[in-house]
Amino acid sequence: MDALEHLRRLCLALPEVTERLSHGEPTWFVRDKKTFVMFANQHHDDRVAFWCAAGPDVQATLVAQAPEQYFRPPYVGHRGWLGVYLDVHLDWDVIADLVEDAYRAIAPKTLIAQLDASSCRPD
């Protein structure tokens, strides 16, 4: 499975998530309104990555620890969003955690409670 398909499965497994193109790239929304993950296929450079919402200090910490894997994305980086390169060795368990954390940063409490109750995650 390629990185986009794996990312898509992770995002669409979460409650009330939809996918549509935004700025020419696959993007995932909570309740078809709020973006929480955006695919970036050489969108602003020659790398394949995704951008996701992140909690306080996550971006700074991960970029400092592993700049070969994480970066501050354009346009949304100033709001704390995290960029994750997909053209490097990936630990999909870590990616799944980042996607779920992005969802939790954007989703309303009712959907987070639904996620907690189901505790589902695709393989």
**Rounded radius of gyration (Å):** 13 Å
Topology pattern, helix = H, strand = E? HEEEEHEEHH
**Which strand order does the major sheet show?**
1-2-3-4-6-5
SS content category: alpha+beta
Total helix count? Answer: 4
Estimate what percentage of residues fall within beta strands: 25-35%
Q: Helix share of residues?
A: 25-40%
Number of strands: 6
Would you identify the regions where 5 or more consecutive residues have pLDDT less than 50?
A: none
Largest sheet: 6 strands, antiparallel
Pfam families: YjbR
GO molecular function, one term: DNA binding
Keywords: DNA-binding
Protein name: MmcQ/YjbR family DNA-binding protein
Folded structure, characterized:
It comes from Lentzea indica. This is MmcQ/YjbR family DNA-binding protein. Keywords: DNA-binding. One of its GO terms (molecular function) is DNA binding. There is one protein chain. With 123 residues, the chain is α+β, with helices and mostly antiparallel strands. Helices cover 35% and strands 25% of the residues. The chain is built from 4 helices and 6 strands. It has helices at 3-12, 58-65, 92-106, 109-118; strands at 17-22, 25-30, 34-41, 48-52, 70-71, 82-85. The protein has a 6-stranded antiparallel beta sheet. A hairpin with a 3-residue loop joins strand 2 and strand 3. It starts with a helix and ends in a 5-residue tail after the last helix.
